[in-house]
Amino acid sequence: MVVEFGEEIDPRTNLLVLELEKKIRGERLPGIEETVPTYRSLFISFDPQKFSHHQLKEKLQGMISTLEIENCKEGRLVQIPVVYGGEFGPDLQGVAEMKGLAQEEVIRLHTSREFRVFMIGFTPGFPYLGVLPPEIAVPRLETPRLKVPKGSVGIAELQTGIYPLESPGGWRIIGRTPLQLFNPETNPPFLLSPGDRVRFFPISPKEYQELLQDGSL
Description:
Layout: E1 2-4, H1 11-27, E2 32-37, E3 41-46, H2 53-65, E4 77-84, H3 92-99, H4 103-110, E5 115-120, E6 127-130, E7 145-148, E8 152-156, E9 159-162, E10 167-169, E11 172-176, E12 197-202, H5 205-213
Parallel strand pairs: 4-12
Antiparallel strand pairs: 1-3, 2-3, 4-11, 5-6, 5-12, 6-9, 7-10, 8-9, 8-11
C-alpha cells in the first residue's frame, strides 16, 4: 500500500510521511513487514493474512487524521566534510560556468545551509538531500557516468546527495567526502536517516587523506 501526501519536494510534506511511519512503528501493527518513506509518500508492505487491506486502510486513515507536525523535534545534525573541485569534484567548474559563478561561490552556496534528508535510496545509504539553493541548481548529466567514486557529493536539480558506494550515476559531482555512509557490519548500517539534517563544510585534499587514514571513519 502507498500513502501519498503531495506532489513536490517540500519539507512539510516529507515530515507528514515520516510522522505516519513513526506512528505505524509505534503501534506495532500486526503483519506490517516494511515501511519505506520517500519525498512525498510512504510505501507499506504487509501480510494480508494478518492484516487485511481494508483494515489497514481504515487504520491509516485514522492515524493520518491525527497527525501533528507543529511540535515535532528536528532530526539530528550531521556535519559532512567535503573536498571540493579538482579530481574530487570534476563537475564543479562546469556547474560554475553554467550558472555564471566562481567556483568559490558554488562552494559557499553549497555549504551555506542545512539540508534535510528526505529519503534513502538508489544504492544502500544514498541520501536524497534538499533543498539546494536555486542559484546552483543544474540538470543531471545527459550521459551518466559508468563509475562514480565512493563518497562523491553530487547535485541534480534542487537536490544534493552522496554516493555511499562506487556506482553508475548521472548527478554532477562537485566534491567528495571521506565519511563512510554505508557499513553493513554496523547497526544501523547507514550513517544518515530520513529526517536528519546535514551541513557540508570544505576541507583540503590533505585533510581528506588524513581523515581517510583515521580508523574512526
